[in-house]
Amino acid sequence: MPQPPFNRRDFLKANAVLGLGSTVFSGFIGEDPQVSRESQEIFSDGNAAEGRLYFDGFTRIGPRKYKHPAEKWKLDDLLKDMDQCSISAALVAYTQSVNYDLMYSNLELSRMIKPFPHLFPIWNVMPHQTGEFPEPAGLGKLMAEHHVRAISIHPKTNAWDWKARHCTPLFAHLSKNKILTITTASELGAWEDVAEFLDRYPTLPLLITGAFWNEQRYLLPLVQQCKNLHISFDNFQINEGLEYLHRIGCVDQLIFASNSPAMAAGAHRTYIDYSAIPEPDRAKIAGGNLMRLLKISSKPALRENKNEDILMQAARAGSPLPVPVIDMHMHMLHEGLNGGGWTYRMENGGPKGIFATAKRLGYRGGGIMSWNGVVSQNAVAGNPCTAEALDVAPKGYWGLATFDPSHYSQEELRAMIAEVYADKRFIGMKPYQFYGFEYHDPVYDVWWEYGNQNRFYGLIHNSRSDLLEVETLAKKYPDVRWIIAHAGGSYKMADMAIAAMKKYPNVFAEITLTPVPLGVIEYLVAGAGENRILYGSDLPMRDPRQQLGWLVFSTLPLEVKKKVLAENAMHVIKPCLDRLPEHNRPSLTSK
């Protein structure tokens, strides 16, 4: 049956709610049917996930600048995401507590979430000396009155100097009462300023959110040195991060925090669900550490989604998915390496670590490309690295080759292309923006012509702010399937990808990127159809578990999820299957 034409206005209208906090007046107040039973302490694996309580350490609602019309921002969006992902409780921040009068907006937040006993406010605070905010004693009384257990600080955005002498009373009060204080590294300045803050206030528990995976060399030493530092993994999607931090004794400092509804909570809970650490420590990260910091003695009721599909059930249990998974965006380091140069650290990023994780998640295969040949600009060394990974790969994995027209002549490229693709395990083409040429530049023609003749596919990380490269190549080389990498990274990117896919049947979109925006995968499917969207993870630059959970906990029907996870990938590589050796062909049939 043909898909109806996509209309963004209709999509938004169909998915709209009345407004921020509209659920307060919608008649749903009272007993929640998703509340299943009081949580219990679970000290063994087995069915432990069924009793593991997830308490989200940072969510944020409210309007924000430069927002795409489809981005999620309402209280209703947060509540729906929590119910979808079986999140039992959450700390909630409010954008207006930063963007408008702090205390006025703090009180507004408390009023909005009061009907929901599983939601706890995060108040934004600042020094009182300018007459805009209560002095510490008064603040303490208001916090007690409104049951506020955590605060945030935004010195940079709200223009105050946390190092100034006049701030001492505020931080003395927070330290004395051990109030969980939430901020980002950039709000305090640089990472050296974070270290200074932790030294000045050693009894104040600090939660840093928003750190990125490429800041590991700053953050990992700091979390080992300062036990009052706590970290979340919303953007800090580091490969085997929980396992590494558990191994070095930092498990009590790790907090599940999703930044929902801007980000998808399911992505971040999946990181914990599949972690290879003992269940008691998984339970600490999921909610136990946060409840200790908030001094919550009576646990929130355990909330479970009774309408979850078999993929969500498997992910929550930490079991391999019961349907095939094919990853269309996989990098590889040499065996034994943890570093990729530049700002990149990738724990256990060689074949042994990657294939072990892939097995744990239920992978049936995927496309492998090097890291050194792509990002490190050593294409000649990168293709052998990929081949070495394929030598030890389980069944179902194939290679993408890389060639660099900025370092080699056209004659050299032609010879390299023929030599690398003589290995029948290579069926993909992976250029990169660091080579310095836009992909429709004639210097690439020798590669694209070879790929078109052999019906290869290309994975394109756009080097421009638009998708002109993809559209030009799709028209000129119709026998190549062109995949837009990172198409789910933002709604703006999704719009461009949808437009390109509407024009050209040989264009596809792969989802992966750190922001994991809530609802964007559904948006891509609605716009381009369920047969054009592909799963990819970009491992081991990012851990694949967040990327997988983003899709698994989406609201797509199960049959559509199965297409995105693997079936659509098989369509992309179908013209190359006869070329691939039997061992390198993935299968959708039962193992």
TrEMBL record:
Pfam families linked to this entry: Amidohydro_2 (PF04909)
Domain named Amidohydrolase-related: residues: 326-570
Keywords tagged on the record: Lyase
PROSITE patterns: TAT
Name recorded for this polypeptide: Amidohydrolase-related domain-containing protein
Organism: Dyadobacter endophyticus
Organism lineage string: Bacteria, Pseudomonadati, Bacteroidota, Cytophagia, Cytophagales
